[in-house]
Amino acid sequence: MSIEARQLRVGYGERDVLNGVDVPLPEGQITAIVGANACGKSTLLRTFARLLKPTAGSVLLDGAEIAHTPTRDVAKRLGFLPQSPVPPEGLTVEDLVHRGRFPHQKLGRRSSAEDKARVDWALNATGVHDLKDRPLDRLSGGQRQRAWIAMALAQDTPILLLDEPTTYLDLAHQLEVLDLLVDLNEQGRTIGIVLHDLNHACRYAHHLVALKRGEVYAAGAPDEIVDEVLVKQVFGLDSRVIPDPVTGTPMCVPIGRTVTRSATAS
């Protein structure tokens, strides 16, 4: 199952946010989309998910324009977790995760044994099974985020798109989520993920897309494209890029004013 953007241009009002980008998500791989704030990362992912309509260009899902694909067919093939989603009032964790099964159910049909099994698996995989009867509005930010991820997993699609899924999570839970995505990828899923942490992106992604002001600055394997020039051009940050001591992937060490002051003082 493949998805790609071709000459994609997307805007809000009269302002273009994406300026004719070509972005394939390599099939069977994890692609991380990175860049500074307001560079178009979330806009790109939302357009992939058919939540935004391009002003030019197209998104192709398995070679066909996603705009012309029936909504239920899209939902069976593509799962999307937006940034900071807002649930209906009073919904429990289990209710939310069950909603991930809606694309697989016929109108009026009760949940099947397969539906229940997928929901239980998603609850356990994200560590929220013990919270399944709790209303979402009584959870911490991190617990709520994991419940939303469970809903996306329950949808059980070959393509999974996640917009900053580690938001609100402490470091241990960030790594748990990213490790889970690796497991899902190894089962054959194509994953596209927006991440703020460049080091996490380099460690977990096979393919990296760096956006700058609505254009693709660079795309490729992290160890082929991530260097100090990219960090400076894309993030406006002076840094040193060294091998990650655990994985050998590129690791960005920022150079801040505190370091400069310390060097001056010495």
From TrEMBL:
SUPFAM superfamilies: P-loop containing nucleoside triphosphate hydrolases. It holds the Pfam family ABC_tran. GO terms for molecular function: ATP binding; ATP hydrolysis activity. Keywords: ATP-binding, Cell membrane, Ion transport, Iron, Iron transport, Membrane, Nucleotide-binding, Transport. One of its GO terms (cellular component) is plasma membrane. This is ABC transporter ATP-binding protein. One of its GO terms (biological process) is iron ion transport. CDD domains: ABC_Iron-Siderophores_B12_Hemin (cd03214). It comes from Solirubrobacter phytolaccae. InterPro entries: AAA+_ATPase (IPR003593), ABC_transporter-like_ATP-bd (IPR003439), ABC_transporter-like_CS (IPR017871), P-loop_NTPase (IPR027417), Siderophore_ABC-ATPase (IPR051535). The keyword Nucleotide-binding applies.
